[in-house]
Fold this sequence. Notes:
The protein is of the alpha+beta class. The chain is built from five helices and five strands, in the order E-E-E-E-E-H-H-H-H-H. Helix 2 runs parallel beside helix 4 and helix 3 runs antiparallel to helix 4.
Amino acid sequence: MFTKGEYVVYEQKGVCCVEGFEAPDIPGIAKDRTYYVLLxxxxxxxxYVPADSAEGKMRKIISRQEAxxxxxxxxxxxxxxxxxxxxxEELYKSCMRSYDYTEWIRLIKYIYQHQQNRLKDGKSVTxxxxxxxxxAEEALYSELSIALEVANAPGKISVIAIPITISTIV
Length: 170
């Protein structure tokens, strides 16, 4: 069970702060269940997640020590491997659905290399690659910024303050 004030990663919503627990007064939502009230850090708003079905959909963010160890071993993490452009999007989606920071790094590395190859061949960067790069970077950097305590203010992430850049990752 997660506690009030704790930061978690919730599925594709990214890093959220657990605001509390309640049965919300919203039509169509069961009043006999307890819900986590989550505040997404990057997207704003409020999410109600049934506490009894949150397992496997939420995890604690990594600790400061884990974040520092992750940054130290970035060069040892291999990029994803996609057989072709047609299967790449399914791979991208699967990676983002995993809500696993190592997979996000692998995705960032793959897309960066793919973009560089396209540019070298005189081709433009695809909107799909840009979309998934942004998603993976936001997910990774928001989790690291909380773990490394470099947020500007409660609920506001300073991506610029992260001590890594795309060149560090790749």
